[in-house]
Automatic annotation (TrEMBL):
Gene Ontology molecular function terms on file: carbohydrate binding
Region called Disordered, residue ranges: 224-289
Name the UniProt record assigns to this protein: D-mannose binding lectin
TM region(s), chain numbering: 24-46
Entry keywords, A to Z: Lectin, Membrane, Transmembrane, Transmembrane helix
The species this protein was found in: Micromonospora pisi
Domain Bulb-type lectin, residue spans: 292-398
Length: 399
């Protein structure tokens, strides 16, 4: 029933009650109150039976982080927590993430994931950070492999961590301080906060987290599955072979050495010594086959959207910068961060233009009057605007 009809009904009921003679008026009032109470009780029972009334503390059906949701699954490690062995299902993910750039090898990826969540996918942190890597929402939007991917899925989050950290290392390289630690701080607090601070902040929480990552990295560097040597020393086959036979601290003179009666090719027992085996190195992996992506006019990007190939990613970032990444590594940018760019348009006249919210030009390739030109993400790593096979603008990033 609409609200206006309910108010009219109550008004008519009130007039009827007060027009009723004295003795019957109280009967009418009591009957009305009883009916109202029954209606209220019926409504509560009906809504509860359909599951409409929310239960305090229950998790939302979609598992979202809403007020009244259940506590997150898992607790992030604290300083002093012993590292866990790297789960087998994480090994290929960590190895792949560790190949994006030299600053982020696989043990460092594993150490950061251990410090962030202890390999628990459901950990929820501050400012909306979630998943094994504790991605902040804005960073996940920028580095997620697809719009449908979830930061709570390790198969998506761990490789994305490699791309994100390598991207932040390149993006914040001009700032003072250690590039990796600066990127680690930006991953926790956001790149804008680090830029505003002018570099790496001297914060106790950052130092504690960085120390945890460093300790865990040293642990995972000994994992042979990540290319490290085993932490358990290997006993030699013949531990007495190099033991001096003379007095303590001295070696036996060559003249007093006992000759081997069995000859150099046999063991003391007389059995032949096994010959050394030669292992053949596996063939190098095949070179990747990079693809070309052609963008035709008119095509547009809004903030946090990208044109991509299997090698390149040309993105309009949330702060209005145009960034080109080659296999996750930043190789070119327009330098327009913070200038209000909202839409990047490749126009029909061949001009690539970054517009502000109100239609003002923030940046352009200055290639107008080239109708029919195409924007090409080339297989060699270069991005060009081409008109009839002639390059009229490029990022100059071929490699």
């Amino acid at each position: 029933m609409p609200l206006s009809q309910g108010v009219d009904a109550l008004t008519r009921l009130r007039r009827t009650i007060f027009r009723t003679p004295g003795p019957l008026r109280w009967v009418a009032i009591g009957t009305t109150l009883g009916l109202v109470l029954l209606l209220v009780l019926f409504g509560v029972v009906f809504r509860t039976g359909l599951g409409i009334v929310p239960v305090v503390g229950a998790r939302e059906p979609d598992g979202g982080n809403r007020v009244g949701a259940a506590a997150p699954i898992g607790i992030a490690p604290s300083p002093g927590t012993s590292p866990k062995p790297l789960p087998d299902e994480y090994v290929p993910l960590v190895v792949a993430a560790g190949k994006v750039c030299p600053e982020l090898p696989a043990p460092r990826i594993a150490g950061q994931v251990m410090a962030a969540s202890g390999f628990t996918p459901g950990v929820l942190g501050e400012d909306g950070a979630e998943g094994v890597a504790q991605f902040r929402p804005e960073l996940w939007q920028a580095y997620a492999p697809s719009p449908a991917a979830s930061a709570t899925d390790p198969a998506a989050a761990v490789p994305a961590l490699g791309r994100a950290m390598c991207g932040l290392v390149d993006e914040l390289a001009p700032l003072d301080g250690d590039a990796y630690l600066t990127a680690l701080a930006a991953f926790q607090w956001g790149p804008e906060a680090i830029r505003e601070a002018g570099g790496l902040p001297d914060a106790p929480s950052l130092r504690a987290f960085a120390d945890m990552v460093s300790d865990y990295t040293a642990y995972y560097a000994r994992d042979p599955r990540l290319g490290g040597a085993s932490a358990t020393p290997t006993r030699r086959n013949n531990p007495t072979a190099s033991t001096p036979s003379g007095p303590a601290g001295t070696a036996s003179p060559p003249g007093n050495a006992t000759p081997d009666p069995t000859g150099p090719g046999t063991n003391p027992s007389g059995t032949p010594r096994p010959s050394a085996t030669t292992t053949t190195a596996p063939p190098p992996p095949p070179a990747p086959v990079w693809q070309e992506r052609v963008i035709r006019s008119t095509s547009a990007l809004r903030t946090d959207q990208s044109w991509t190939s299997n090698r390149l990613e040309l993105t309009l970032t949330g702060d209005g910068d145009i960034v080109l990444r080659d296999q996750g590594r930043t190789v070119w940018r327009s330098g327009t961060a913070g200038r209000g760019g909202q839409v990047l348009v490749f126009q029909g006249d061949g001009n690539l233009v970054l517009y502000s919210r109100y239609g003002g030009t923030v940046w352009s390739s200055r290639t107008a009057r080239n109708n029919g030109a195409t924007l090409v993400l080339r297989a060699d790593g270069n991005v060009v605007i081409s008109d009839d096979g002639r390059s009229i603008w490029q990022t100059g990033t071929a490699s």
